[in-house]
Predict the structure.
Amino acid sequence: MTALNNILIEARNISKSFAGVTALDDVSIQVRAGERVGLVGSNGSGKTTLLNVLSRFVDIDAGDILLEGKTYRNSDPANLATRGVVRTFQYTKNWINMDVRENLLVDVGNSWPERLIQSLFAWKRIRNHESALWRDAGSMLERFGIHLDELLDNQGGLKLVKDISLGQRRIVELVRAFLMKPKVLLLDEPSVGLDEHAYSFLEDYLERLASAGSAILLVSHDKQFVGKNVNRMIIMHEGRKLLEEQARNFRFGNTTRTSEYGTH
Amino acid sequence: MEYFVALLELSGIFVILAIGVNYLVGNAGVMFVGQIAFFAVGAYATAIMTTLFGLSPVIASLAGAFISVGIAAAFGLVMRRLSGQFLLISSLGLCEIVRSLVNNATFSGGAQGITIPESLFSNTLLPRPLQMPLLELALLALEILFFYRLDRSPKGRLVRALRDDPILLTSLGYSTTRIQGEVLIMSAVWASIAGSLFAHYSQYIDPTSFTMIESLMILIVVMIGGVSSIGGSVLAGIILIILPGILRLLYLPSSVVGPIHQISFALFVLVVLKFKPKGILGRVTLP
C-alpha cells in the first residue's frame, strides 16, 4: 500500500478560461502510483482540457500542477515526456505520412537519435537498436490483434498510417505510448474503435502497468470500459469537479448526462 | 555547346541550392523562403575574401558557410516564435536585410558589385573547362548522399515527424524548435556553398542576383520537382534553367524573348501543377 500513497501527478486548484469562457474552475485531482483514475462527464465538461493542462499543452490561469511533488507549471511539454509523462489524444495522433514502423520507433529518454553525427554514421548501432525496438513493438501489435502481414502494402512494404483503419491507428498510438514505459499515463478515449480482442488486451495491459507502479488517468465516454478499469472515478461538470468516488461505490445511469451519474 | 555547358553549370548551382531548400521546406515542413540570403552570404564571402584578402577559394567558401551558420542560428532563435505565414514573411525579410546590406556597404562593392578574377580558380591541375562541372558534380553527389542518408536516419525520421505533426513530436519529448533550427542550419550551409560556386561561375556578383524573386524561383523549383524528393529538385532545377536557354536557340527577336520566356515558364508551372499537383516526382503534400 505504500506505493498507493505516493502521489505521482497532481492538479491543485487549477482554473482555466478560454476567451472568457471558463473551462476549468478550481479543480484539484491527485493520481497515485499504481492507481487508475477515470475522468468522466458530458461533452464540454473540461475533461480533455484537464488532460491538456496536465500535459502542459495548455497554460493554466491559476493553481498549480505537480509531478512527484514538484511544480512543473512552467516546464516545456517536451521536457515532460522525458520525465515519464505520456499522453494519447482524443483524435488519434500519428504521423500519417510515415509507415507504422517509423511511427513506433521513438526513443524517448535516449537522446542519441537527436545527435546528427551519430544518427548519420552509427549505422550498426542504430540498426541493432531499432531492431530491438521494432521487435517489442511488433509483439505488442500482435497482442493487440494486428498481425504484421496486415500492415503490408501491395509492394510488400509497410503501409503508411494514412492507409490503415482508424482502429489500427488507435492501436499504433497506444503501442507507442506503452513502449515509452510511462510513469504517468494520460489516456483520452483509448477504447474508441477497438475490437473485442484489442479492447481486452488494453484492459489487461492497463492493469499490468498500474501493478508495476504507473499512475493512469483515463478520460472516456465508454461507461463499461471506465467502470471496469479504474479504482477511482472523478465526474466533471461545466469545468468543475462534481464528484469523486471509489469505483466500487459508483454506478452509471442510463445515459451519459451528468445528472445521471450517482453513487450507491 | 559551350553555351549549354554553361547553362548546365548554372543549373547545377541552383540544384545544390534547391536540394537544401527542399529538405527544409519539404521534409521539415518549415515555410522558410529566405535561402537566397545564405546564397548571397556564400557568394559575397567568396568574392570579398578571395579578391580583397587573397584567401584560397576553399577557405573563403568555408568562411561563408560559417557566417551562414551564425545567421541561421540567430534566425533560428527568432523562428521559435514564428510559424506559417509569419515565418514566410520574416524569411523574406531576411533576404531583404542581406540584399540591402550588400547593396549599401562599401566592402561589398555596393550596387556596382564585385568582379572575381578567373585566375583565382585556376590553381589546380585540372583544365579550366572541367573545373566547375567536376566540382559541382562532386559537391552535388556529397549533398545528395548527405540528405539521402539523413532522411533514412533516426534524425531524418524526427524531421519528417516535425512536418507531419509537431504537436505529437512535442508530446514524445522532442523540441520542435531545436530540430527546425538544426535543419535551417544544414540547409543554410548548402545554400552558402552554392553561393560560393555562383561567385566563381559568374565571376561578377551584384545585389540584383540575390533578390526575393530568386528565393521564390527556388521555391518553385522545389514545388515543381516535388516536395521531399531529391530527384525531383535535380530534375526541376535542370528543366527550369535549361528551358529559357532553348528559347535562345530559336533566334527570336530580342524584344519577344523576354515575354516568351516568362509566358513559357508560367505555362510550364501551370501544366505541372494541373497534372502533377505533388510535383514531377513528389510523394507528399505539405500539411
In short: The longest strand of chain B covers residues 114-115. The interface with chain A takes residues 146, 149-150, 153-158, 160-161, 163-165, 167-168, 170-176, 178-179, 182, 284 of chain B (CB under 8 Å). Residues 2-210 of chain B form one domain. The two ends of chain B are 43 Å apart (CA to CA).
